[in-house]
Amino acid sequence: MRNYSIHFWMLASVLILSPMLHAADVDADSVESVPAVVETTETSAAPNGGSASQQVKSESETAAAEVVEEAWDFSPYRVLVWIVADSDRVNAASVDHSLREYLDRDYSSVFRVTIEDAPAAVRAAAFRNMVNMDYDVLTSADPVLAVKRDHKDAVRIRTAATVAEFVQAVHGTPSGIAALIKRAQAKGDATVTGVAKRLKPVDGDALRVQNMWADASTEAILVNRGMAVMLDKPEAKIVTPPIQGLVSEVIEQYDKIFIARIDVSSVPGQVDVVEMDTLMRFFGPVAGVPVPVNESLGEAIGRGVTKAFAPVVRIDDAGQKSAVGLLRAAGLIVDEESPALVGPGDVLQPMSRKNDRNGDPFMIGAMDWAYLLVTEYEDRSAKMDFYAGRAGGLQGRKNKRTFRTALKVRPFDEGTLLRLHAQGDVDFPLIGYEIYEKELKSTEMTFVGRTDWDGRLNIDKTKDPLRLMYVKNGGAVLARLPMVPGLYQNAVADLQGDDLRLQAEAYIRGVQNSIIDLVAVRELYKARIRMRLQRGEMKEAEELMEALRNQPSNEALASAMGKKQAVFLKLLGTRNANQKRKVDEMFVTTRELLSKHINPILVRELEQDLLKAKKNGGKLPVEKPETEEEEK
Fold first, then answer.
1. What residue stretch is flagged as signal peptide (predicted)?
2. Worst-scoring range by mean pLDDT, 5-19, 91-105, 300-314?
3. Cβ distance 285 to 410 under 8 Å?
4. Does the pLDDT at position 181 exceed 80?
5. Where are the domains of the chain?
6. CATH architecture of the domain covering 415-496
7. What is this structure's pTM?
8. 382 by DSSP, 3-state: which?
9. Order of strands, sheet of 490-495, starting from the edge strand that comes earlier in the sequence
10. What is the DSSP track for 4-67?
């Protein structure tokens, strides 16, 4: 009877909580995206004196959590729009109504939208340069605790609470310490989970604190994230304190963040929007739209958001040449023309993220020179062909810390400037290299052009967004470069230069030509020597024989080739295994040619003819035809 009562209470709790949790516009913090980023939270004190992490959740809370969790294809995007404007009259409140109205036309079921004014650090970054914006730039002003990685307890230090436990002193500026405690107090914990007692003010500015990093006695410092990522010798282990207003914390609460920069100082106005995919911390291209005089700013921002938005496909199954993925919020889309859909012919950019045990990424971002081409979309699932510069990029073990997704590309420019340079040396352009385009479904290749004096070639946009480029030099294929012209203004490929292989090939061709010439010269000497011997001209025959002996021998040519081969292999080094193999093959082939055609047999035969002539009174006896000997 007791068990029955417990289960009845659980069921009632779920039924009561469910409508509350699924009310319109579910709070963004309560809905986790799938796959969700693993987050670590600070251990807070429980009412009875124990830690909250030690308390067991009630069965009703567990059941409620299960109700909240949604499937990937039925989970709407949690969207934040940050407003950045050059006028005080334009802010989040002034554009909220018209922007929501516009977005509801296409995204009412797939977006859960929040509109806010951008934090100061984001505003500064947006006004400075939206094209090169990244995660580190946005979060650079966040205060963090930088602990030396060679600290004896560095492995145990993961949170602010463990910093307070294992670090004796955290140095910072007086103003930085005061601001940290104030922001922690606003979140309900003025002690910063115990770190406050470890904070030691330094007489000086932030640069003085940063310079203390070189002191061996310094364990940790309080600086902004922008400074912390630049620390070295040793590197810093960055710990985020639990305080209010962290940009990094805001980013983790959303799936997509759109930064809208609004310029109303000119007519017509201009809105530039850039999208950040928060899971991959990836920024798309900047989408610019004009603001006509008869259109509200909210509508213009909405057009910019639509232009910048990239639907996300979760890659569930991947092979060497294909992949299958599930489209985010696909089950919520009712309009076949929805911008949140993908279809055959669309190109997606694959990305991966691998987290450590704290949920922080140690490998994240788009895969280099790799794209997915959608071939079929049915029942919320997309089938795609995989094109990459190197094989195996999508494959790998599946686990809770690894995420693989793909974002639909949006090429806005008319083309992309491709630049080739030697691997590891940006100042060594690959000049005169040939670029070919290969058809995606055939072996046909078309010549596109040659790189200029700086290793550059402009690749134009065509009706087919994905173009498969091949780099050749001296007839050898050096690289395959899948491209979407117009997606980026510039694309740089660092390749293993083929110039040394071409030098080796030129040398080998010279040696082979010398072998051919030497064969002809030796045959000419052979004919002349035998003619002199048949005439009885022994002196002239011996002079010609001496000249033949002075011609380059097999041993001399092989020795010279061996020395030259050693030089080429040394210049190629250990990193260019493929080119070393090709050079070795050329030298092996040439040695075989040398052994076959330049050998001592011809000289020995002529020396025997000289002996026969001397025994025959200075004249080579005429050999009888084989037919006459057979008749006898």
1. 1-23
2. 5-19
3. yes
4. yes
5. 77-135+250-307, 143-240, 311-408, 415-496, 500-616
6. Sandwich (2.60)
7. 0.74
8. strand
9. 456-460, 415-422, 490-495
10. HHHHHHHHHHHHHHHHHHTSSS--GGG---SSPPP---PPPBPTTSSBGGGSPPPHHHHHHHHH
Question: How far is the C-alpha of 61 from the C-alpha of 68, rounded, in Å?
Answer: 11
Side chain identity, residue 56:
V
Element (H, E) at 418: strand 415-422
Least Cα distance to 432 among 499, 506, 495 occurs for: 499
Cβ(127)–Cβ(272) under 8 Å?
A: no
pLDDT computed for residue 294 by the predictor: 85
State the SS3 of 58-122: CHHHHHHHHHHCCCHHHCCEEEEEEEEECCCCCCHHHHHHHHHHHHHHHHCCCEEEEEEECCHHH
Rounded to an integer, what distance in angstroms lies between the CA atom of residue 191 and that of residue 186?
Answer: 11
What value does the CA radius of gyration of the chain take, rounded to a whole number of Å?
Answer: 37
309: phi then psi, degrees, rounded to nearest 5: -65, 135
C-alpha to C-alpha distances, 488 to 286, 331, 409, 413, 492, nearest whole angstrom: 10, 32, 10, 7, 10
- CA–CA distance, 284 with 417 (Å, rounded to integer): 18
Q: Which residue has the tokens 């949006």?
A: 410
**CATH architecture of residue range(s) 77-135+250-307:** 3-Layer(aba) Sandwich (3.40)
Got the DSSP string for 424-441?
A: T-TT-B-TT-EEEEE-TT
Count of other CB atoms within 10 angstroms of residue 519: 15
493 burial level (CB within 10 Å; 0-12, 13-18, 19+): buried
Cα–Cα distances in angstroms (integers) from residue 241 to residues 116, 139, 140, 306, 344, in the given order: 23, 13, 14, 35, 46
* pLDDT band at residue 164 under the 50/70/90 scheme: very high
pLDDT-derived band at 354 (thresholds 50, 70, 90) equals: very high
Q: At CA 43, angle to CA 37 and CA 48, rounded to 5?
A: 140
Q: What is the pLDDT of residue 627?
A: 55
Please count the CA atoms within 13 angstroms of the CA of 477 that sit on its side-chain side: 10
Asked if 485 and 411 touch (Cβ cutoff 8 Å), the reply is yes
Mean pLDDT, residues 375-396 taken together? 87
> CA–CA separation, 606 vs 523, rounded Å?
11
CATH: 2.60.290, 2.40.10, 1.10.150, 1.10.1790. Which one for 311-408? 2.40.10
Lowest mean pLDDT among 62-71, 303-312, 572-581: 62-71
Q: Are 300 and 81 in contact (CB under 8 A)?
A: no
Q: Which helix (H) or strand (E) holds 163?
A: helix 160-166
> Torsions phi, psi of 48, nearest 5?
-90, 10
- Both tokens of 511, joined, read 């040696």
Question: Do 151 and 157 form a contact (C-beta atoms < 8 A)?
Answer: yes
Q: Extract the tokens encoding 196.
A: 């406050």
Residue 411 DSSP SS3: coil
Q: What's the CATH superfamily of 143-240?
A: Osmoprotection protein (prox); domain 2 (3.40.190.120)
